[in-house]
């Protein structure tokens, strides 16, 4: 009986552990600071053709601080039937596929699973569409809402010609530019309404469906991409990024994974063929990005922090970068020097998170590793006497994200701490002289 009970207990433990692991994985994609963030892809059929339809496809970035950088997004799907793309404006398929059966003019794309990318800036006007031609770059909703959408138009053939015969594409994929986004199934919604410039006439799409794609940092990359280091004016200790935050130096199995800054072969390695792959400076943390938080000054009513972002990647520039920092004193942020800032309040009245990003044409580009490979600013906070303290690491951030990806923080036990404020006994020179004289007199009297 005892053996049976032991086996049942062990089995139950394994099952519970498995369920815990599954539930943990499913919550990895949830961002508590941007709970409603997603990229929504909207299809609007604006007219019918003899063998199909003309549709406008629009990507809306509803993420507050996560954006898509160059080389940009790529959108894919699987046709439900044997559809083809006759023509496109504002975008293009990366592979035409086998269109040999079509004469005299072949379609733009005959693949069952087309892959669509944005056009580059400078595209001829007759090939453009509204919100196109930005090289696939999508800004975040807070940082640049005017550039948080992209559109293209396509003419689809061998498809349905009514709302009842059209079959929605399946298996949507979104690369931004790498993996990380998971797209749900297409859902038919109310047709989109279009207003004329004077707002006096309204028309609507023949049919509309939406696809929602959400981001997971754990799907995007196997290791973190940034780390945090800390320092303060009241302690000489500089807390570095945790060792192996983003990886470990392993020149035995992965030679050339990092480069020493004084290496004579640095220039030849940086100019190697695969420029899209990261090439970081050899450090103990091996992260492309390091964010340093320094508690700089303490005033009577204010305190001041210096934030420095350093790029350790020799091959990559970060354009339109941003930081998201969580700290309880952001409700009293007084001034930010040389950065833009915006408060994020994902939980209504709780204001403990701020988004920081560079000023256009000044420091919005974080250039590759080198003397200019950093940006920095200072933050001025007003003290709240009820909560302010330098004790127990309160002055340091709770969480930092760079371009939407969470950075590795040092352990709280390693935070710079206040000097020991215990009782210290000070002895004056007069006291020493008096004690010495008394000792000498006592010794002389009894000798």
Automatic annotation (TrEMBL):
Name of the featured protein: COBRA-like protein
Q: Name one Pfam family in it.
A: COBRA
Which keywords label this protein?
A: Glycoprotein, GPI-anchor, Lipoprotein, Membrane, Signal, Transmembrane, Transmembrane helix
Signal peptide extent: 1-29
- Using the record's annotation, list all stretches that form the COBRA C-terminal domain: 225-416
The entry's localization annotation reads:
Cell membrane
Gene Ontology process terms (BP): cellulose microfibril organization; plant-type cell wall cellulose biosynthetic process
